[in-house]
Write a sequence for this structure.
């Protein structure tokens, strides 16, 4: 990171484009219905795919009879595994992590189906209505196999999901530091429990959608799709179809939310590409909600046994955890199935000082939808577990939950701090966030009000959750364990064209984060132009030579860094060109708001004039000088390690003591997300993340029946929170610069979802602290509370008096 | 399947088309008329992304057949403001950062327009209840509530 | 999720609608607001060969009073019930129930006839019909009949209607003066179908409950009247013991199912809690029996 000197050192007098509440550039088109999402794109002669999907959780395919479907009106063809295998090379999510077993990626099921919703056959017809009619006519003959739905039972390997793996244990890993056994035996207090978080699905409001077009003349394939990772997909598809990158382009136009669900390679993407080449016509698949809820990657499905040891002063001395991750049927490309469960053990020690840690994780295949990245990846689970343990310990030690955290959060002078799992935290406001959150929440007064409410028979609870996460990670650390692709760099190219317009091209793919605005802010500030002068190109694999995309709270750190580097070098070029044109020393050239001037004089030219002088009026700059200049600059930024983001959340809930309905009344987040590019956008990210976390804590759950059928196949049954279930969320920011990234930015896209399940769970536990029950399973639905409370009352009768 | 002729007005423009009876209004608007501002997120009435005004009242275009709209007047998000001349409600959404990915936004706007026409929206609770039939996965709703609150206050004396 | 193909007929009169329905037999279905039928078609759970659109067979939103009844046309939309001054005055319990039905965009289209005929066990309007002893007017080709609400709902999504029959009007007999009401339901998300709900009316007389009605929904195949509980409370002054006995009786009488959102036990529990609250509200609104 040559130019990557800590930004804090690089002068603080900033013109203030970065840090301003700049209105979003993307809004006018999205507000007026003039956005362009994949399904909005029309391609002449396009045909539509509907998939015949497995209605079994685990079965051998004895035969597929597509004769009737082929005869159905408007049908162009019905395709199965062999048709795809003929043109697509196999691909597997590999990893150099020991004890990991990659599973085969078959775009259409081959031999067996392993989850309900798995695509078995692709039916192509003139429109989606006809394709669906015909898909219903495909008759698949299944030989049932025993289901593998319980992850703990699956570990016994009595039935194998992937015979060639020889086991259902797809990945395993252990972390250990310090003398955990000694810490446990010597501790004044050990708290422990078995925690369970139930499977979630990201449920972006735009369902997945892909449109593949093949140009037979150029032999070039273009895939438009609702994806967060166009560059990553381009590279994967290049391998699968053996095409060079310049004949393969993946474009993410406007994308209606992703949250991780659109960050992996999907069977449907491969199928539409294969069929577009085979049929020589544009092929589109527009997924529907049922397909989304059964065939888009799911997440947060872990069982965690954990133990925390403390001394008599409430200082943490040891932590031990055993994690079983239910990864579903396949190891997702490229992240692998270890992504989520390994993160759970890696992040379990949280932002605390704990000398001894041992964590074990086992990722188990089951006959359910594959899991993949979802906002927070693993950390919503690790934070839920750790923060519950912390509150359980506080209660046993009669310490205030705020106090026990203050005693154990890593202090400023202890950074960089190496956690028991090997994660190194760089300086971030762990303690400051706790203090700020308590302050903003009005903690002391609220506790008094809570006591008064209890006196009136009301059940009010306050829950705190503190966490830290690694964001903007560079090439030193893989985004997923042992993954053979580079997720640690991003590239930018900024160009001034012959009209003087500035275009900055990136490989990241904004899908709600407002990166067209924030990256323009960074470019504008570094270059010396106005925000509206900069056009941001993104979401297009053709825009830069290499990129993976937008996920893992990386885009502002990585693409922002690349923007900074390339804007700085472009500015040097502009200054050189201007010194020729304005006949002044380079050191006297200034550029502001797109006007280049000579300091202390009224000599100035606009960027447009400068561009004309450079590209068109060939006598303005001497040939030799011109040839060594370029009004274009590219740079790749690698934060190498990345940085730390930290936060404390505080939630207040009230529980109806008779119906067990839980209402979240107040919510405060104090966050250290480094230098804030646009506070309006940052707050929006926090709000959205917290809302997803509240959903995860109280409402959302993918439910299977005993035979592996998904019962939550609609938005009626998979309950995403509405405006009525989410309170106003107050966010406060520390606004310090990260010492480890160019620009001082830290990633912050996921944090809301990381802290909220824990804070809400703690608040619910606090509200019910008069009862002898444990909140160790999420979502904590009214039904679960009812059962918990009835069981403590020790009878099968009604908990008629509430509590 | 036999097609039926229908004539309807969309954003003030009259259209005559032949449609298959099963064609959903959402698909008719998006595919047949090219008005892709109306989005589809579930096709079972829950997400609200497809909400349009049908004869002045908000309605789910995914739960309405185009044939049922013969003679009707439909307003979609394209019938509000334009880039450079946003409708005040759109302005308010922009000012309050009430959209992120923008996918739910057209449905939110059309719903909010109808709520503003029909309800006092005197409290946040009422606004939140009114918006509860429109799911947004990005914003956490607070900014949408703020945008609608401001629009409600700006209605002046013609409020219901 | 696109609906299967069908033939569409827009009927202009009750006669035409019933004639067409009779002609096509069980291949045909009426469609009113479409707010329950179209989701089922989009999921391909039902695939009628013919849809007979009945929206134009009668003027929309017909709500009037005659002969001691409030008469509501089957095509009256939820939104009209929600806002009707007559309903608010005569049946405030029904007006209150409407605020729990779905969302504005759905209330703008959904009709009372559609809601009753769809017969979702957790829907509010069927429960109101049962609570208020509604009389459901049914037409078929060359004939008419009246079905009492108590006999109309036969099972989940199952009514006493026969092929070719449509509901044309629902009559709600007026309540005696001094009747208090209560309506409570519990849903996980605003506007969703309730996990359970209860509605009650209490007509007071000299400190006693002269008439008590309790309807429960979401706790069985159909909305039900809690007859035993009603009997236990009639004539009482709503003393705590009397109420507790009624709640016990009502919990014993319901037979909810387990499903994904709630167990039978929890639903039974909720039924008691919500009925208790609805009864309390109704008793208070009836003047606590003071009248
Ligand atoms: C997201 C969502 C949430 C909802 N939430 C609720 C809720 O909380 N509570 C609630 O009660 N409802 C709810 N509903 C259902 C809504 O109230 C429906 O509008 C209503 O149940 C059906 O009325 P409709 O006119 O739309 O009927 P349609 O959908 O047109 O028809 C429903 C059924 O009744 C038949 N039918 C319709 N009219 C007649 C008639 N006059 N005679 C004979 N048969 C007829 C049809 O053939 C069909 O079988 C919800 C719907 C949605 C989409
Ligand atoms: S698409 Fe119509 S409500 Fe979701
Ligand atoms: S802004 Fe993305 S769903 Fe609402």
């Amino acid at each position: 990171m040559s130019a990557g000197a800590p930004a804090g050192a690089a002068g603080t007098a900033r013109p203030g484009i970065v840090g301003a509440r700049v209105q979003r550039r993307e809004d006018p088109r999205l507000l007026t219905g003039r956005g362009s999402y994949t399904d909005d794109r029309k391609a002449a002669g396009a045909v539509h795919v509907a998939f015949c999907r497995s209605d079994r959780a685990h079965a051998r395919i004895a035969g597929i009879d597509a004769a009737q479907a082929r005869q159905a009106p408007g049908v162009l063809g019905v395709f199965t595994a062999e048709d795809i295998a003929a043109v697509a090379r196999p691909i597997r999510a590999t990893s150099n992590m020991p004890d990991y077993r990659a599973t085969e990626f078959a775009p259409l099921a081959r031999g067996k189906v392993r989850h309900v919703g798995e695509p078995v056959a692709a039916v192509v017809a003139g429109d989606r209505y006809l394709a669906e009619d015909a898909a219903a006519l495909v008759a698949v003959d299944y030989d049932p196999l025993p289901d593998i739905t319980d992850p703990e039972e699956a570990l016994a390997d009595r039935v194998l999901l992937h015979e060639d793996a020889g086991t259902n244990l797809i990945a395993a890993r252990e972390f250990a530091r310090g003398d955990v056994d000694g810490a446990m035996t010597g501790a004044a207090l050990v708290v422990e429990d078995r925690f369970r978080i139930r499977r979630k699905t990201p449920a972006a409001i735009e369902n997945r959608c892909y449109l593949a077009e093949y140009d037979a003349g150029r032999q070039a394939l273009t895939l438009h799709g609702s994806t967060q990772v166009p560059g990553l997909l381009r590279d994967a598809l290049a391998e699968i179809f053996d095409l060079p990158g310049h004949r393969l382009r993946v474009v993410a136009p406007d994308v209606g939310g992703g949250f991780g669900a659109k960050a992996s390679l999907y069977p449907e993407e491969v199928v539409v590409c294969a069929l577009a080449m085979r049929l020589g016509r544009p092929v589109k698949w527009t997924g529907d909600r049922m397909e989304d809820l059964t065939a888009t990657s799911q997440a947060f499905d872990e069982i965690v046994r954990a133990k925390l040891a403390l001394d008599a002063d409430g200082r943490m001395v040891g932590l031990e955890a055993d994690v079983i991750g239910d990864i579903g049927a396949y190891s997702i490309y490229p992240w692998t199935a270890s992504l989520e469960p390994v993160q759970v053990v890696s992040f379990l020690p949280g932002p605390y000082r704990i000398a001894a840690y041992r964590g074990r994780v086992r990722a188990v295949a089951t006959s359910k939808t594959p899991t993949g990245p979802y906002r927070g990846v693993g950390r919503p689970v690790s934070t839920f577990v750790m923060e519950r343990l912390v509150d359980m310990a506080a209660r046993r030690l009669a310490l205030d939950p705020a106090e026990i955290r203050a005693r154990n959060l890593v202090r400023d002078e202890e950074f960089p701090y190496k956690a028991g799992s090997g994660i190194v935290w760089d300086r971030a406001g762990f303690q400051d966030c706790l203090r700020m959150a308590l302050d903003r929440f009005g903690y002391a007064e609220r506790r008094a009000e809570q006591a008064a409410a209890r006196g009136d028979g009301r059940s009010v609870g306050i829950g705190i959750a503190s966490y830290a996460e690694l964001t903007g990670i560079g090439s030193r650390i893989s985004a997923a364990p042992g993954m053979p692709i580079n997720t640690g760099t991003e590239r930018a190219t900024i160009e001034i064209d012959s009209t003087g317009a500035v275009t900055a091209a990136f490989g990241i793919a904004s899908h709600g984060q407002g990166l067209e605005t924030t990256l323009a802010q960074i470019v504008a500030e570094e270059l010396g132009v106005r925000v509206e002068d900069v056009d941001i190109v993104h979401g297009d694999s053709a825009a830069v030579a290499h990129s993976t995309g937008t996920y893992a709270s990386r885009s502002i750190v990585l693409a922002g860094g690349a923007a900074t580097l390339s804007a700085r070098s472009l500015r040097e070029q502009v200054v050189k060109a201007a010194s020729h044109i304005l006949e002044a020393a380079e050191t006297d050239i200034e550029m502001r708001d797109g006007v280049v001037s000579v300091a202390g004089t009224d000599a100035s030219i606009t960027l447009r004039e400068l561009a004309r002088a450079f590209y068109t009026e060939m006598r303005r700059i001497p040939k030799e000088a011109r040839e060594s200049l370029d009004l274009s600059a590219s740079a790749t930024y690698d934060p190498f390690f990345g940085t730390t983001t930290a936060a404390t959340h505080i939630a207040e809930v009230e529980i109806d003591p008779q119906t067990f309905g839980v209402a979240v009344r107040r919510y405060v987040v104090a966050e250290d997300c480094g230098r804030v590019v646009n506070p309006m956008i940052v707050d929006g990210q926090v709000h959205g993340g917290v809302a997803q976390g509240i959903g995860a804590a109280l409402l959302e759950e993918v439910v299977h029946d005993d035979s592996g059928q998904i019962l939550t196949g609609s938005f009626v049954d998979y309950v995403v929170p509405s405006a009525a279930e989410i309170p106003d969320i107050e966010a406060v920011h520390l606004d310090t610069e990260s010492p480890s990234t160019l620009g001082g930015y830290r990633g912050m896209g996921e944090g809301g979802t990381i802290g909220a399940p824990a804070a809400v769970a703690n608040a619910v536990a606090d509200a019910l602290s008069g009862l002898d029950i444990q909140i160790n399973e999420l979502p904590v639905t009214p039904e679960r509370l009812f059962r918990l409370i009835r069981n403590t009352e020790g009878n099968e009768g009604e908990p008629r008096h509430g509590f | 399947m036999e097609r039926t002729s229908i004539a309807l007005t969309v954003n003030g423009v009259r259209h005559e088309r032949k449609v298959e009876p099963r064609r959903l209004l959402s698909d008719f608007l998006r595919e047949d008329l090219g008005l892709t501002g109306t989005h589809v997120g579930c096709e079972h009435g829950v997400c609200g992304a497809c909400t349009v005004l049908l004869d002045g009242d908000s309605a789910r275009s995914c739960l309405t057949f185009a044939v049922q709209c013969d003679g009707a007047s439909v307003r979609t998000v394209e019938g509000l403001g334009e880039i450079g001349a946003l409708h005040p409600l759109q302005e308010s959404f922009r000012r309050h950062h009430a959209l992120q990915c923008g996918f739910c936004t057209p449905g939110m706007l059309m719903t909010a327009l109808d709520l503003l026409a029909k309800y006092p929206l005197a409290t946040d609770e009422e606004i939140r209840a009114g918006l509860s039939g429109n799911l947004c996965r990005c914003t956490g709703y607070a900014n949408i509530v703020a945008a609608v609150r401001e629009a409600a206050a700006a209605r002046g004396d013609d409020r219901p | 999720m696109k609906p299967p193909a069908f033939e569409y007929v827009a009927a202009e009169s009750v006669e035409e609608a019933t004639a067409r329905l009779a002609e096509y037999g069980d291949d045909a279905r009426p469609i009113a607001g479409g707010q329950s039928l179209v989701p089922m078609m989009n999921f391909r759970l039902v695939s009628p060969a013919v849809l007979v659109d009945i929206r134009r067979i009668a003027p929309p939103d017909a709500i009037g009073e005659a002969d001691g009844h409030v008469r509501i046309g089957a095509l009256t939309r939820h939104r009209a019930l929600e806002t009707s001054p007559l309903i608010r005055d005569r049946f405030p319990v029904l007006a209150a129930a409407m605020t729990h039905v779905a969302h504005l965009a759905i209330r703008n289209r959904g009709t009372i006839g559609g809601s009753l005929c769809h017969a979702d066990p957790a829907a509010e309007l069927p429960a109101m019909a049962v609570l208020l002893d509604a009389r459901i007017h049914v037409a078929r080709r060359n004939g008419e009949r009246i079905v009492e609400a108590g006999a109309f709902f036969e099972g989940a999504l199952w009514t006493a209607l026969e092929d070719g029959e449509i509901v044309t009007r629902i009559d709600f007999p007026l309540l005696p003066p001094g009747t208090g009401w209560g309506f409570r339901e519990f849903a996980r998300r605003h506007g969703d179908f309730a996990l359970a709900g209860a509605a009650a009316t209490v007509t007071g007389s000299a400190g006693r409950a002269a008439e008590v009605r309790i309807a429960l929904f979401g706790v069985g195949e159909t909305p039900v009247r809690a007859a035993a509980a009603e009997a236990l409370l009639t004539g009482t002054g709503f003393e705590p013991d009397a109420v507790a006995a009624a709640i016990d009786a009502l919990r014993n009488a319901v037979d909810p199912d387990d499903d994904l959102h709630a167990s039978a036990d929890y639903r039974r529990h909720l039924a008691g809690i919500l009925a208790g609250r609805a009864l309390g509200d109704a008793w208070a609104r009836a003047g606590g029996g003071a009248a």
In short: The pocket of FE2/S2 (inorganic) cluster (ligand 2) is lined by residues B 40-43, 45-50, 60, 62 (CB under 6 Å). The interface with chain C takes residues 128-129, 132-133, 136, 288-290, 658-659, 661, 699, 703, 711-712, 714, 716-717, 719, 721-725, 781-783, 786-787, 790, 798-800 of chain A (CB under 8 Å). Chain A has a mean pLDDT of 94. The first helix of chain A runs from residue 27 to 31.
